Amino acid sequence: MLDERTTPTAEARRQIEICNACRYCEGFCSVFPAMTRQRAFADGDITQLANLCHNCRGCYYSCQYTPPHEFALNLPAALALIRNDSWERLVWPSRLGALFQRSGGAMAAALVLCLAAFFWLLAALRPEQGAGFYAHLAHDAMVALFLPAFLLPLASVAWGLRRYWHEVGAGRPRLAHLTGALRQAAGMRNLSGGQGQGCNFEAEDRYSNSRRWFHQAMMYGFLLCFGATASGTVLHYGFGIQAPYGFFSLPKLLGVPGGILMVIGAAGLAAGKLRADPALGAAHAWGGEMAFILLLGFVAASGLALYAATGTALVGPLLALHLGSVMALFLLLPFTKMVHGFFRLAALVVEEQRRRGE
User: Fold this and answer.
1) Would residue 353 count as lying in a domain?
2) Residue 21 burial (C-beta neighbours within 10 Å; 0-12, 13-18, 19+)
3) What is the phi/psi pair of residue 208, to 5°?
4) Count of domains observed in the chain
5) Is residue 154 part of a domain?
6) C-alpha distances in angstroms, 217 versus 93, 272, 338?
7) pLDDT tens, position by position, for the chain (358 residues)?
């Protein structure tokens, strides 16, 4: 059994107290201004600071107390461990989160292949009528399969956010708190080190905004793809206009550039992760984080390939692979790094509350 002094929370508290006394990094990101408002840190305070951290690593490369100094500070890694632990503990079922962090690549690949095989077999029961994708799988069958696969993981994340809110001792949010948090999330200001010159994630003592740009490409690409699906739903149920849709329809005008942005974002994030020092993050979760990036990239790439193969014999197998990867992404959402977006937004809302003294 670990001594209390060596637990991740105790170690993070030790490092935060040293940083709070030094304050050299006060302007680096949201973590340090939040830190300076307190003198003592409860476990919930540590969880909140960890979820504010973007792991830009600028504080590590600027710190005079990193190894071999006796203080041996590695704040990015200490907060990364707490951050990953908060997702695993608070989102139900917690054991699956820990399992994905350890075996994410194998878990994601197996799930995609199994689900793709399921959709391939299901296509044998193809409807007598239908065009485009619906010639291989009926619309009602898609809705029946994907609606619970989408809503149940979101319910799990919502439960985790409720527990997070209670753990960090947050009050009732106001509209101003939410809008302020959304502004920060939209611009990803803290991924630039908080000062605009970039962060040190993969470039060590050099500044780079590449990680911020690739994150933005991934986030906005994902939102465009979600918008494409939502617009298709509105066209189908609201106006009786059924798929397949032409290139100049809203679903395609949103989905195609969204997919391209996601592929670019996934490639850039994966390359940056390969260059970065794993010792400055949650090293045990490296494989799970990389698996999630590659899964996002595969979802987008398979969707683009499916669109390019329209009218060919490749539609059937590509559709099975694409649907299998999309469903795998939905089902794994609460246990992958995708959940960090929800928790980080919650942390930003809490920070807006506390910054305003409300």
Assistant:
1) no
2) exposed
3) -155, 140
4) 2
5) no
6) 30, 14, 15
7) 334 457 999 999 999 999 999 988 887 888 999 999 888 999 999 999 999 998 888 889 889 999 999 999 999 999 999 999 999 899 988 777 778 877 888 888 898 999 889 888 877 666 555 555 666 677 777 888 889 999 999 999 999 999 999 999 998 889 999 999 999 888 887 777 656 677 877 767 678 888 889 999 999 999 999 999 999 989 988 988 887 788 889 999 999 999 999 999 999 999 999 989 999 999 988 999 999 999 999 999 999 999 999 888 898 889 899 999 999 999 999 988 889 999 999 999 999 998 887 6
Domain contains 189: yes
Residue pair 256/304 in contact by the 8 Å Cβ criterion: yes
Rounded to whole angstroms, the Cα distance separating 23 from 209 reads 24
Q: Are 329 and 104 in contact (CB under 8 A)?
A: no
| Cα–Cα distances in angstroms (integers) from residue 285 to residues 207, 289, 333, in the given order | 25, 6, 15
d(CA 326, CA 332): 10
The DSSP symbol for 244 reads P
Is the distance from CB of 259 to CB of 77 less than 8 angstroms?
A: no
Residue 272 · residue 210 · CB < 8 Å: yes
Say how far apart CA 103 and CA 289 lie, in whole Å: 10
- Indicate the helix (H) or strand (E) that contains 103: helix 94-122
Distance CA 117, CA 19 (A): 52
Contact 293, 269 (CB under 8 A): yes
Give whole-number Cα distances, 83 to 62, 70, 75, 215, 344, in Å.
Answer: 22, 25, 12, 18, 10
Q: Which whole-number Å values give the CA distances from 350 to 13, 53, 162, 166, 188, in the listed order?
A: 19, 13, 13, 11, 17
- The DSSP H or E segment spanning 315 is helix 315-332
104 with 73, same domain: the answer is no
Closest CA to 354 of 171, 131, 91, 165: 171
Q: How far apart are CA 42 and CA 44, in angstroms?
A: 5
Whether residue 308 is contained in a domain is answered as yes
Do 67 and 103 belong to one domain? no
List phi, psi (to 5°) of 270. -65, -45
